[in-house]
Amino acid sequence: MAEILSPSTGYYDLRSKYKVYEKKGVREYWIVDPQHKSVQVFCRQEGKAVLDQEAEQQGTIRSRVIGGFAVEIENIF
Known about the structure:
It is a single chain. By secondary structure, this protein is α+β, with helices and mostly antiparallel strands. Helix content is 25%, strand content 42%. The chain is built from two helices and six strands. The strands form two sheets. A four-stranded mixed beta sheet has the order 1-2-3-4, with helices on one face. 9% of the residues are buried. The mean pLDDT is 89. It comes from Neomoorella stamsii. It holds the Pfam family Uma2. InterPro entries: Nuclease_put_TT1808, Restrct_endonuc-II-like, Uma2.
């Protein structure tokens, strides 16, 4: 699951949707923040979504769910 934050719904996306995804058992959740040029990846551990990876403006983020899938942050923004 990936969520792209927008200025008008950012708080909702970070708080409310996050809790829904966690409750529904989403195994991996990416939050893409265009304003800060950052990506956070949350993975499910012991029934909770925990921050697994984070990159801002540069670096590589790798999926733990989709084998071999990786994204260079510089290519997103």
